[in-house]
Design brief:
With 587 residues, this protein is mainly beta. It has a domain at 2-174. Helices cover 10% and strands 53% of the residues. It contains 7 helices and 31 strands. It has helices at residues 19-34, 51-55, 68-74, 104-112, 118-124, 135-146, 532-535, and strands spanning 2-4, 43-45, 81-91, 132-133, 151-162, 165-174, 179-180, 183-187, 190-199, 208-215, 220-228, 237-245, 248-257, 266-283, 286-309, 312-328, 343-356, 359-362, 372-375, 379-387, 398-412, 415-428, 433-450, 453-465, 473-475, 489-491, 493-509, 513-527, 540-551, 559-567, 578-584. The strands form 4 sheets. The protein has a 21-stranded antiparallel sheet that branches. The longest helix is centred in the N-terminal third of the chain and has 16 residues, at 19-34.
Length: 587
């Protein structure tokens, strides 16, 4: 266990004996006699943990003090309390007090690992000593820490109340973050691989650096990423991404101060993104045409909010977006017919977002045996803009439409239901119709049958209107239909139904990797009336079995999916078995 404390100083036990001691006794008696001794604040303990027990705290037990028990312990959430001593306790990657983890390799890993710096953890907290403190701040600070890829889990525990000051313990456990980028991905019959190096917590600073070489069906090249989510301990973030491929390049710069918490009062951002690459159009998994596509994108924005009020957050945002798309034919390659037309959007916009705060923790929903934070409150957002020549757009006037809604409900205690929709597109006033419009609706049901078994069902429906020639709505092995080639069907309508019976085993390989498996069925279709790639083969379906592996000692947003899918409906280039190997951020 490694711990760092900050707070009241300690009295020096040394002192001179003799007249100085007598003087202090006399002075104390005089102060008592005159009634000038200040009454010491009464203290009450809120936690039974000491430093030693915090170092052994087991995150896997599912206990978290960030909810209603927190509010009961504090006894006030109206700002009448302030933060006192904040004690940081950092657990090593491996707990060598356990016989299974007390090995030479694990001890050596703990020694070589550079712990997250204490100040990085303090910078993520929503309170500092002497500032007002509420139960909501404690709970959200815990969620913010848990969201960091370099931390396995976190607990923020009120330890003691002395007068109006609350002493707090913050317990975290690091994961190993410096890893080679040795990746292999197979989906829908297409292979991709990469080699390089990445670390989302360079020297314990919380900064993310990644570099390497990747190759897939479309292109190959090298890339570099640098990201600082808390520049110089502030709430501002900075990211730069560079990519040099055999068919083009990309340069991305993103600087922003987001709404980092529910109670954050303002935000701003600037994003510049330039992409130049060759792209293709697909039918039944085969590329039928190709072209060069260059995109220049920039967006600046500012936002303000009154913060968390009555369990709800409202946020206003304004901004300006510029988006320019240009296309060129490639020599010796079949070009699309008709060929994509250049377009340029430039528009000021205004948006509003509403969030209802009802966070709870769960397990085995998107992760393996890890604490997960779900918001059971409604969330919706809308944005309206006006793209016109006067703002730098092309000579077409358009209304910009953006919107979305999500919600999570408990059907019963072990039943979760998540659903929502989003809309993205334009209204073209010259043609008096929708343009580049994409509408999605989704629903997901999860039933935790037991601690080791769950049933999951998800349905996604997409509808598009008047997409430009360079965009396609596709369905195949790369988009969830695991028994079929990538980019197999295309159209202006799509649905995909996925059913999975999930099993969370007690297998803990080498005390590193959790193991699970699934039985699954996928049913889907993409179609439109005037295109043969969909109507001819109708609804496609497959069944299969899959293996799930999640490392408990490396960054928490990586789960390996190995699936074997058997198609139930035949078609051109459809094999008897399709193997999919992917790294995903959730189950």
């Amino acid at each position: 266990m490694r711990s760092v404390t900050q707070g009241a100083g300690q009295l020096n036990s040394r002192g001179r004996v003799g007249c100085h001691a007598l003087q202090r006794v006399a002075l104390a008696c005089a102060m008592i006699w005159t009634g000038s001794v200040a009454a010491q604040p009464q203290c009450r303990n809120l936690s039974e943990h000491d430093l030693e027990s915090l170092g052994r705290l087991t995150f896997e037990d599912g206990v978290s003090a960030g909810r209603k028990p927190h509010e009961l312990a504090l006894g006030a959430t109206d700002g009448s309390l302030i933060a006192g001593e904040i004690r940081i306790v950092q657990q090593p990657i491996f707990n060598t007090d356990l016989p299974d983890e007390d090995t030479w390799l694990f001890r050596r890993a703990n020694q070589l690992h550079v712990d997250t710096r204490e100040q990085v953890i303090r910078d993520l907290l929503l309170f500092k000593p002497g500032e007002a403190l509420t139960a909501e701040q404690l709970a959200e600070s815990e969620r913010l820490l848990r969201d960091r890829p370099y931390l396995y889990d976190a607990r923020v525990l009120p330890r003691r109340v002395c007068g109006d000051a609350v002493d707090v313990d913050v317990v975290t456990r690091d994961v190993w973050t410096l890893l080679p980028r040795l990746s292999f991905d197979r989906a829908g019959g297409d292979n991709s691989y990469g080699i390089g190096l990445s670390d989302p917590n360079v020297f314990g600073t919380g900064k993310n650096v990644s570099m390497g070489y990747t190759k897939d069906r479309d292109r190959s090249g090298v890339d570099f990423l640098y990201e600082d989510p808390n520049v110089r301990g502030s709430r501002a973030s900075f990211a730069v991404f560079l990519e040099d491929n055999d068919d083009g390049s990309r340069q991305l710069l993103d600087v922003r101060r987001p709404f980092y918490s529910l109670d954050a009062r303002y935000a701003w951002g600037l994003r510049l993104d330039n992409v130049d690459r060759e792209e293709g159009l697909f039918l039944l998994g085969s590329e039928v045409s190709k072209f060069r596509h260059e995109t220049v994108f920039s967006e600046s924005s500012a936002g303000w909010s009154r913060g968390l009020q009555g369990g709800r957050v409202g946020r206003w945002k304004v901004g300006y977006t510029y988006e320019d798309h240009t296309f060129e034919p490639l020599p010796g390659v079949v070009a699309p017919d008709p060929f994509p037309v250049d377009r340029r959007y430039a528009y000021p916009w205004i948006g509003y977002e509403s969030i209802k705060e009802r966070f709870e923790t769960t397990r085995n929903f998107d992760r393996f045996h890890r604490t997960e934070d779900l918001n059971f409150g409604k969330r919706w957002a809308a944005r309206l803009g006006w793209s016109d020549e006067v703002f730098g757009a092309d000579d077409v006037s358009r209304l910009v439409l953006r919107g979305g809604y999500t919600n999570v409900n408990h059907v019963r205690e072990t039943h979760l239901f998540r659903y929502g929709f989003n809309l993205n597109g334009f209204w073209n006033f010259d043609r008096d119709e929708e343009e580049n419009l994409v509408a999605n609706a989704f629903a997901r049901y999860n039933h935790a049958r037991s601690a080791s078994r769950a049933f999951s069902a998800s349905l996604g429906v997409t509808y598009v209107r008047n997409l430009p020639v360079d965009r396609q709505l596709l369905l195949g092995g790369d988009t969830g239909l695991r028994g079929y080639p990538s980019r197999y069907q295309q159209g202006d309508k799509r649905f995909l139904l996925t059913l999975e019976e999930r099993f969370f085993t007690d297998i803990y390989l080498f005390r590193l990797v959790r193991v699970g498996y699934v039985f699954f069925a996928d049913v889907g279709r993409a179609w439109e009336s005037d295109t043969p790639g969909g109507d001819e083969f109708g609804v496609l379906a497959n069944v299969g079995i899959g293996l799930r592996l999640e490392s408990m000692r490396t960054r928490r947003d990586r789960i390996l999916h190995l699936d074997l899918g058997i198609p139930l409906v035949d078609g051109p280039d459809v094999g008897s078995v399709e193997i999919t190997l992917r790294i995903k951020q959730r189950l």
